[in-house]
Amino acid sequence: MTEATNVLGGKLEICCSSPITGYYRDGFCKTGGMDFGMHVVCAQVTAEFLDYTKSKGNDLCTPMPEYQFPGLKAGDRWCLCAARWQEALEAGVAPPVILSATHSRALEVLSLDDLKKHALTLS
Fold it and tell me: Which of 1, 36, 94, 106 has minimal CB crowding within 10 Å?
């Protein structure tokens, strides 16, 4: 198996381990054949984005212990579906992304320019 790469061409870095994220719940925004949503965008969610995605039928705030899901709050990092991030971008509520932890397959749906414009700046 080849090593996963990020949208900048480097090694894919961990997105978040608390809460544990990723389609495979390993902290990385990796994808595979069963990940129809392509959970490949590492984002730091905002209150505006959480409200938006809830309005679209995907409540990421409510804990679901049966899936070991604590519920997200603004500031948490999470692997988002590329198409949902694009929808949020078009609605003006795209959360900032961590480019080094966003899988290269995001570029099948999103433009690197849009991702760079929304890159989280670490200070």
Answer: 1
The beta strand positions in the chain, using DSSP E, are: 39-44, 77-81
Tell which residue, 89, 118, 106, 119, has the closest CA to residue 31: 106
Enumerate residues 6+ apart whose C-beta is below 8 A from 13.
6, 28, 98, 100, 101
Beta-carbon count within 10 A of 32 CB: 8
Per-residue pLDDT tens over the stretch 22-59: 999 999 999 998 999 999 999 999 999 999 999 999 99
Tell me the C-alpha distance between 42 and 100, whole Å.
9
- Per-residue pLDDT tens for 72-104? 999 999 999 999 999 999 999 999 999 999 999
Q: Which candidate, 1, 6, 2, places its Cα nearest to that of 103?
A: 6
Residues 92, 74: Cα–Cα separation, whole Å = 16
Helices (H), the chain: 47-55, 82-90, 112-117
DSSP state of 97: B
